[in-house]
Amino acid sequence: MALWAMGDFHLAFSVDKPMEVFDPIWKNHEKKIQKYVTKCVKDTDTIVITGDHSWGRNLEECETDLKFIEELPGRKILLRGNHDMFWDAKKTARLNDSFEGRLQFLQNNYYNYGDYALVGTKGYCYEGKDSIEHFLKIREREGERLRISFDKAKADGYSKFIMFLHYPPTTIGEQESPFTQMAEEYGVAQVIYSHCHGRERYDDSFKGEVNGIMYRLVSSDYLKFRPERIL
Ligand SMILES: [Fe+2]
Ligand SMILES: [Fe+2]
After folding, report:
1. What is the dihedral of CA 37, 117, 70, 199, to 10 degrees?
2. 9, 29, 153, 172: least CB-packed within 10 angstroms?
3. How many CB atoms lie within 10 A of CB 201?
4. What angle, 0 to 180 degrees and rounded to 10, lies between the N-to-C axes of helices 132-155 and 178-185?
């Protein structure tokens, strides 16, 4: 039994969105994902996929992409990324009902892995694309969603946590954020995030141990499409 993570599959089986325009590393990236996930992840393992699953704009356009994820080995837990238009955060329970036994969607809930609770939300950091007011509003809402995830796990008796975010936990230059503070408050063992693509973004936030917490970047291109073993 092992816990794995990787994010940002950016699949596009039903829409025209070639990823290699951003970097040649993305050429046939879905084949690399399939190859390495199948090689690493056993049927008894769990893999958390940290958002940006599909370029499809609705569930219909994402169908083939989600099917691709479904057919990968192991238990698949999905986190919401900024490009996951098919996933209305408020309707996560409905997604969990329709994909029961196939995919699990992590939002305002938690999943267990041994004696760990896997908690998470999309998160947010400032990328200069919106006003400070909007950034603060989204970050606060994401903080509330993360706390719901933690508190549900805590109420069920969990005291060991692995925390998943789509966005990096800090904005460039920050030494801490509401997300790192919450990770420290609940005593999480690891914080896993993705979203950052390309060499110039890989050092946007924490990697390695900070204040006793292990931070890991698991963007698929950063990992060269090989899932990262978390536990
Ligand atoms: Fe992404
Ligand atoms: Fe993203």
Report:
1. -50
2. 172
3. 17
4. 20
Question: 199-211, pLDDT tens digit by residue?
Answer: 999 999 999 999 9
- CA 120 / ligand 2 centre spacing (Å): 15
- Average pLDDT (216-222) is 98
Residue 229 structure tokens: 């073993």
User: pTM, whole model, 2 decimals?
Assistant: 0.98
153 CA → ligand 1 middle, Å = 27
pLDDT of residue 14: 96
Give ion ligand 2 contacts, CB < 5 A.
Answer: 52, 81-82, 195
Q: How far is the CA of 122 from the centre of ligand 2 (A)?
A: 9
Mean pLDDT, all residues of the chain: 98
CA of 8 to the centre of ligand 1 (A): 5
Number of helices (H), then strands (E), belonging to the chain: the values are 5, 11
